[in-house]
Structure formats: C-alpha cells, structure tokens
Design brief:
The complex is a heterodimer of chains A (462) and B (292). Chain A is α/β, with parallel strands linked by helices. Chain A is built from 18 helices and 18 strands. The longest helix of chain B is centred in the middle third of the chain and has 13 residues. The chains are: A alpha/beta (462), B alpha/beta (292). The structure holds flavin-adenine dinucleotide (FAD) (2 copies), iron/sulfur cluster (SF4) (2 copies) and FE2/S2 (inorganic) cluster (FES). Chain B: InterPro entries: Cyt_c3_hydrogenase_gsu, Dihydroorotate_DH_Fe-S-bd, FAD-bd_FR_type, FNR_nucleotide-bd, PyrK_electron_transfer, Riboflavin_synthase-like_b-brl.
Chain lengths: 462, 292
C-alpha cells in the first residue's frame, strides 16, 4: 500500500445517501493493510506529545508500533493497561481535540489516525477472541459501583484487576450508560461493540446487577452498613434533561433528546420487532448544537424525517465534534444557525404545528469566552415542523445525593469529589464521571473511574 | 429474571400477579410503582405496587389489559418469569410520610375508579395497620367489574360502592357518592382519588368547589421511570414536574388534567396499530406459551 506521509490513510465509510436510510455503522474502520500502512506514519517520538493529549495517557507510540508489526495481541495488551473500552474510545473520543491535536505529524500534514488505529486494535482483538486477563490474587474486600457507564465500568474493571470483589448496580435493564441508551447504533454498535466491552469487564470477575436504582431499591448507607461493601464508587452520570421553559413545550411531539434517543437506542424503537413506539415526525427541529443534538437529528433523519438543527450561535461555536457535524451535513441535515426558538405552536389536539423562532447575532464575548448571541428585534418567523427535540444539556440526577447522608453536591448539583482520587465528602464513597463534572466525555469519565479505582485501593489498603 | 408465583383473574380484564422480587419487596412503600419489561423486545410498563410481602420477597401487581403489551403480559403463567422488574420507583404516598399523630387527626376519604382500586388497597391497608380509620368509595360501571371488594372491606372503616347503573349499592359515580356522603352529614379533611385521569379530573373539580384538599396519583406515559427522559412530565401549578421522580402523587387541584390526557393519548394511533398486530397475530410477540 502506498503511503504519503503527510496524508492519513482515508477510512472507509458508508455512502451518505445509503446510510441516511439505515442504522448500520457509518464508519467502517481500517482493515489490516490500511492499519499497518497508517502505523508507519507514526514517528515513534521519544517525547510523544500525543500521549499528553490523551486523558488516560495511553502509550500511543507503544501500541502503534505493535500494529506496524501486525501484533494485534501485543497492541491490545498495551492499550488495556490504560483503557477498558478501546473499541468505544476509538469511535467516540473527540480525538481531533485530544491525542490527535497534539501529534507532531499534524504540524505540517495530517495527524496520525490514532483513534481509528485504536478502534482497529480493539475490533480485531475481539474478533480473535483476545480477552483481558483477570486477577490471580483476591483481596477479600467488596466494592459497590453505582452506574455502568464508562466511569463505572472502568473503575470496576481496574478494581477487579487488583483483586477486589466488585458489583455494579445499574438502574436500567442494560449496562453501558450513555453508550447503551444515548449514542446511536450507527456511531457505536450496541451488540458488537458495547455489549462486547461490557462482557470483557465481566470476564475480569465483575458482577453486574441491572434493574437496581440506588436511592430507591437500596441506599449507599445500606450498601456500606448492611450489605458488606467496604467502599462505593458513584458513576451515576448526568441524565436529567433540561427544557427551555418556553410556551407549548409540553405539547405532543416535543421530546427531550434523552427520550428520543432512549426510545431508539435502548428500546430499539427503530426495529419493528420491538414494542416501544417512537414518533418519527415528518419535519423535525432539533434544538441545540452538541453531540447529543447531532445524534438526535441523525436518528430522526434515519426514521424518515426532514431535519433542522436550530442553534442560537454560529457554526464556529457548535459544541459537537467536527466529524459529527460533517457527517450530519453529508446526510442532508439542515443547519438553521443563529436562530433561537421562542414558542412552540400547538394545534387543538395538543400536538405541535410549528415553532416560532427569532434570528440572533453575535455580540460581546461572555464568561465562556464565546460571543454572546443577541436577539435581532422583530426577526421572528415560523418554522413549519411537527416534532421538536430539545437537546439543551443535562444535569446529574439528585436521587443519590438526596438519599446519602454526608454526600455533598455543589451549586450545579454535581457531587463534590477530589480530582486525583475521586474521594467525596463521605468516607469510603468515591465518585467520578458526569456525576461529578456534569455532561462531559467518555474518556474523561473513564479517566475519573481510573483515578477513583486507585483512590479506593489506597483507602482499602490502609 | 423475576418469577410469577401467583396469577389470578379479578374481573373486567384485570389480572393480579405476585412476582418474586426481593429487593423491591424489601424497600417498597404504598404509593410507589415498578416497571416491568417482559422480554428483550418488550416495552417498559409502569405498574403500581399493590401489595408486598417483605418476608416472602414478593410484590403484587394488578393490571388491566388495555393495549398490546398488557395483553401479552396477561398470557404469562405461574412459573414463567419477566426479564426485568425494577423498583420501587417514585415517592411513597404523602400520607404515610406524615407524623402518625397528625395523620390520625385527618378524616380521609379514598375514591377509587376501576383498576385504580388496586393501588388504593395497600394505602388503606397501611392505614389500618397503623390505627388510622379511613373511608373508601369504589366506583365502577357495573357490579360485575368490581375488584378487590372483600380485601378492601377488611381494611376500610367504611366501604361504599357506587355503580353507574345501580346494579350494586349506590347508583351513580364517585362524585355523586361524595355529595351523597356530605348530604348525610359526613365530612372529610382530605380526599385521595386514584383511577383513570378523567375520573380524577372530575373528582378534583368537585373537591375544589367543596374546598377539600385532594391527592391524585398520575399515570402518564413513561420510559425509564428514573427522571432521565421527561416523557412523564406534567404541568402542576406553574411548574413542570416529572411524575416518575416528583410523583406519582400530586396536589390534584394544581394538575393540568386536560394537557395530561392529551399527552397520554400521544401514541394512540401508533398503539392502535400495535394492538391490531397483536390480535391478528401476524407477527411473533413471544410470551404466548405456544410458539416459543
Ligand atoms: C447522545 C450522546 C452522545 C454523546 N456523544 C459523545 C461522543 O461522541 N464522545 C464522547 O466522548 N462523549 C459523548 N457523550 C458524552 C458521554 O457519553 C458521557 O460523558 C459519558 O457517558 C459519561 O459517563 P458516566 O459513566 O459518567 O455516566 P453515564 O454514561 O451517564 O452512565 C451512568 C449510568 O448510571 C446509571 N445510574 C444513574 N443513577 C443511578 C442510580 N441511582 N442507581 C443505579 N444506576 C444509576 C445510569 O442509568 C447510567 O447507566 C455523549 C452523550 C450523549 C448523551
Ligand atoms: C406510575 C404508573 C402506575 C400505573 N399503575 C398501573 C396499575 O397499577 N395497573 C394498570 O393496569 N395500569 C397502571 N398504569 C398504566 C399502565 O402502565 C398502562 O396501562 C400500560 O403501560 C399500557 O400498556 P399497553 O401497551 O398494554 O397499552 P398501550 O397500547 O400502550 O396503550 C393502550 C391505551 O392506553 C393508553 N396508555 C398508554 N400508556 C398509558 C399509561 N401509562 N397510563 C394509562 N394509559 C396509558 C394509551 O393512550 C392507549 O390508549 C400505571 C401507569 C403509571 C405511569
Ligand atoms: S483514548 Fe481517546 S484520547 Fe486517548 S488515545 Fe484513544 S482516542 Fe485518543
Ligand atoms: S505524536 Fe504522532 S507521530 Fe509522535 S508518537 Fe504520537 S502519534 Fe506517533
Ligand atoms: S419516565 Fe422518563 S423521566 Fe419520568
């Protein structure tokens, strides 16, 4: 295979016209030749800057070297030291602003495709049946992990590798957190990737009890005092959806992105075999500009709707990953930028019949450093839609903090925890991921899970 | 897996089941609910906790077959299991959280409609066990579709039955019976109304006029039941509330019932199709015991 060192080996993708009508994965990933060719572009830097860009500091040149030598088992072993979910991170990490943004290759040409290589290693290892190795020595101590998202799975996996007896308690009927209920099939296949990575964590000896809502079915205090757990990790995420508070928001046809995505991903409403219904809509407005908004929009598109993203700032400020915006545009999603909804219009049956929006312009920068959107007086217009999906962000669920004595939260309802070890204000209780930071990323949640596993090990080794 | 230990037909397409679910049985309180998912392809179906046995680790549910999922559920037999059974969800009844001496000063009237009798039963039973006397009205279209009459008679101070057609005891609906009781000189400091939304709406209209504080138990469409999706949101006074975490009980005088009823009908056409599909049997639904 010919390699231009300045250019990355392109990755194969489903054609936009075809994929807009199915839920199969958009990106097809590298095959062996492509991966080995891309691996030759890595300079094996002595001081690899890419590693600093990765929140869990994966030994990137180390694993790429193994890929170059066609030693997938070796590459997988290197990655496994740092990450429990490489097939997930290789797909959904915002690599362009993390590891790849720091790669020296990126100064003059394209950065090395670190994410795609990581995905190749994880996928190939899975196909070859390579599994992480469980601990040989047991510590004889029990840890409870609340939530089976990336933070919980990582913390549980790391503790199990150290020999702890770990049980994950998950409120939903499936493990994976946002990986299962939020991120769509076409970006992160559920059975092939998510379920397989969950199985890997189980292979380390971790038990997963689904259908247990902590704070309702039992509490943290009971886990510690009556159920014999020596420590608890809270990785309960930030699942509470926000609404705008504009008139008409309770109309039929207005959904939170969480509801829409949960119906489609967790309950598989897009598949006729499953009983849960979803309203596809003919013309859909998705309000917001983050990854979640892109996912909701692309899901609605695949269900057959014409879809508009309504976002109050300009393209430059879109918080979603560049790759997702690009994919959304390719698939035919319309971007109504510098536009903000003011009212949802409702017909006599209580259903959405349109949405009044106002045009915006960018003014002075605000606290976040981004230019503040300001309404242009008199610029209201009606967007003709029958479905509105609100994707305005989420905050942590108060269920756990309100039922645990001594577990403190901050103004933003996030659990207060030390960054380096996850220690909360309650002894023996650790926390990390979106529950602590508010909605963030998979890899940051994993990093926090890792740090907390270390913190818990230190606490229990005292 | 959550095993069905008992199944009983009550009346009017209403079934009772005891489910083995020790964690739920240990912690549930009157007023709370569970979510049942029958199998991999099933919907998540919210159902009120109708009774529980902490020793045996069982929870009783009572459900009416109204659509495809509940019809399929009725085909499950003793010994079979549901794949998922999560709970307890929601908040316990406001009344049982009150200090007992204050609760004993209240004069409480429960008004149940149809399958709503089932969720009222554990609350009345709890009251009896804690020495609080309460009166109960069960409203039904006709005598044959009454459920849990004997059970309720054992725990209520006074049980009144109101049938629309007069086939049993009082002729009229729940509202008519409330007026009748007041005409007889009775009076109450609190009403708890549980049943179809339309019935709760009319009870609330009446009790607002009569100035009796009224609690209702809302049953909007739900998905997760943990506060994550907002499908269950209701307008209560000036606020938007999530029934699954803020409720399911609310001050009935503040609930926007008209909006709630419209929201409940959101999937009507969609569900109508699912029900047809089920009845005509052109797709495999599982759970019928004959084809898998
Ligand atoms: C639609 C969508 C798209 C996204 N896209 C990306 C992306 O492309 N790249 C990226 O890096 N990040 C993305 N994110 C963000 C990322 O998914 C999250 O930051 C990450 O999943 C947080 O992990 P976590 O483990 O902290 O929490 P979660 O993944 O939220 O998991 C928390 C788990 O805890 C469970 N739980 C909550 N409360 C309880 C309780 N009381 N008892 C028991 N269990 C409980 C929940 O059911 C859930 O399963 C996306 C998020 C969404 C919603
Ligand atoms: C907190 C809570 C507690 C509940 N407790 C009980 C109970 O103890 N016993 C019981 O029989 N039912 C109860 N319900 C209602 C029950 O969940 C629904 O009847 C069931 O989900 C309908 O499922 P289906 O697929 O069979 O019917 P569908 O096909 O989904 O619906 C059939 C018809 O019922 C309406 N409907 C849909 N969802 C609901 C709903 N959540 N509530 C009322 N009507 C609905 C639809 O608009 C449609 O007209 C409760 C609901 C909630 C939210
Ligand atoms: S985990 Fe994410 S940031 Fe780290 S190397 Fe992999 S893709 Fe890059
Ligand atoms: S910075 Fe780029 S070239 Fe250097 S080691 Fe990392 S991936 Fe390879
Ligand atoms: S059912 Fe999803 S928030 Fe209440």
């Amino acid at each position: 295979m010919e390699v231009d060192v300045m250019k990355r080996i392109p990755v194969r993708e489903q054609d936009p016209k075809v994929r807009a009508t199915n839920f199969d994965e958009v990106c097809l990933g590298y095959n062996k030749e492509e991966a080995m060719a891309e691996a030759t572009r890595c300079l094996q830097c002595k001081n690899p800057r890419c590693v600093q860009g990765c929140p869990v500091n994966i030994d990137i040149p180390g694993f790429i070297k193994e890929v170059g030598e066609d030693n997938v088992a070796g590459a997988y072993k290197v990655i496994s030291k740092y990450s429990a979910l490489p097939a997930v991170c290789g797909r959904v990490c915002p690599q362009e602003s993390q590891c790849e943004s720091m790669c020296v290759r990126g100064i003059k040409g394209d950065a090395v495709s670190i994410g795609k290589l990581e995905r190749y290693v994880a996928d190939t290892a899975r196909e070859q049946g390579i599994k992480p190795e469980p601990a040989t020595e047991k510590k004889g101590k029990k840890v409870a992990v609340i939530g089976s998202g990336p933070a919980g799975l990582t913390c549980a996996g790391d503790l199990a590798k150290l020999g702890y007896d770990v049980t994950i308690f998950e409120a939903l009927h499936k493990a994976g957190g946002v990986l299962s209920y939020g991120i769509p099939e076409f970006r992160l296949p559920k059975d092939r990737v998510v379920a397989a990575e969950v199985e890997n964590v189980k292979a380390l000896g971790v038990k997963i009890e689904t259908n247990v809502v902590i704070g309702k079915a039992t509490t943290i205090d009971e886990l510690l005092n009556d159920e014999g757990f020596d420590a608890v990790f809270v990785g309960s995420g930030a699942g509470l959806p926000r609404f705008m508070g504009i008139p008409g928001e309770n109309a039929n046809g207005v959904f939170s992105a969480n509801e829409y995505l949960t119906r489609s991903n967790l309950m598989k409403a897009f598949d006729d075999k499953y009983d849960t219904p979803i309203i596809a809509g003919k013309k859909v407005a998705v309000v917001g500009g983050g990854n979640v908004a892109m996912d909701a929009a692309r899901t609605a598109l695949r269900l057959g709707a014409e879809v508009h993203i309504v976002y109050r700032r300009s393209e430059e400020e879109l918080p979603a990953r560049v790759e997702e915006v690009h994919h959304a545009k390719e698939e035919g999603i319309v971007f109504d930028l510098l536009t903000n909804p003011t009212e949802i219009l409702v017909d006599e049956n209580g259903s959405v019949k349109g949405m009044t929006c106002i045009r915006m312009e960018l003014g002075e920068p605000d606290e976040s450093g981004r230019r503040r959107p300001v309404e242009i007086a008199g610029s209201e217009f009606t967007l003709d839609v029958d479905t509105v999906i609100m994707s305005l962000g989420t905050s942590p669920n108060p269920l756990i903090s309100s039922t645990t004595k001594g577990l403190e939260i901050n103004k933003r309802k996030c659990i207060i925890a030390e960054e380096e070890n996850g220690q909360t204000t309650k002894e023996g209780v650790y926390a990390g991921g979106d529950a602590v930071t508010g909605a963030a990323t998979v890899i940051l949640a994993m990093g926090a899970g890792k740090a907390a596993a270390k913190g818990i090990d230190e606490f229990l080794s005292k | 897996m959550f095993k069905i230990l008992k199944k009983e037909y009550l009346a009017n397409n209403i079934w009772l089941m005891d489910i083995e679910a020790p964690r739920v049985a240990k912690h549930c309180q009157p007023g709370q609910f569970v979510i049942v998912k029958m199998d991999e392809e099933g919907e998540r179906i919210p159902l009120t906790v109708c009774d529980y046995d902490r020793e045996k680790g069982t929870v009783t549910i009572v459900f009416q077959t109204v659509g495809a999922s509940t019809m399929e559920m009725a085909e499950y037999e003793v010994g079979e299991s549901f794949e998922d059974f999560v709970g307890p969800l929601g908040c316990p009844s406001e009344l049982i959280e009150m200090p007992l001496d204050e609760l004993k000063k209240e004069k409480i009237l429960f008004v149940c409609g149809g399958v709503g009798t089932a969720p009222v039963y554990p609350q009345v039973k709890w009251m009896k066990e804690h020495g609080v006397d309460v009166d109960v009205i069960i409203g039904a279209r006709t005598k044959d579709i009454l459920i849990l009459e004997d059970e309720m008679r054992k725990v209520a101070a006074n049980l009144y039955i109101a049938t629309d057609d007069g086939s049993y005891e009082f002729k009229g609906n729940g509202c008519d019976k409330i007026k009748d009781l007041y005409a007889q000189g009775k009076s109450y400091t609190k009403v708890v109304a549980i049943g179809p939304m339309i019935m709760m709406k009319f009870v609330c209209l009446l009790t607002k006029e009569m100035n009796i504080p009224t609690i209702v138990s809302m049953n909007p469409i739900m998905v997760d039941g943990t506060g994550m999706c907002g499908a269950c949101r209701l307008q209560v006074g000036d606020e938007i509330k999530f029934a699954c975490v803020d409720g399911p009980e609310f001050d009935g005088h503040l609930v926007d019932f008209d909006q709630a009823m419209k929201r409940q009908a959101m999937y009507k056409t969609e569900e109508g199709r699912a029900k047809l599909k089920f009845e005509e049997g052109d797709t495999h639904h599982g759970g019928c015991g004959q084809c898998h």
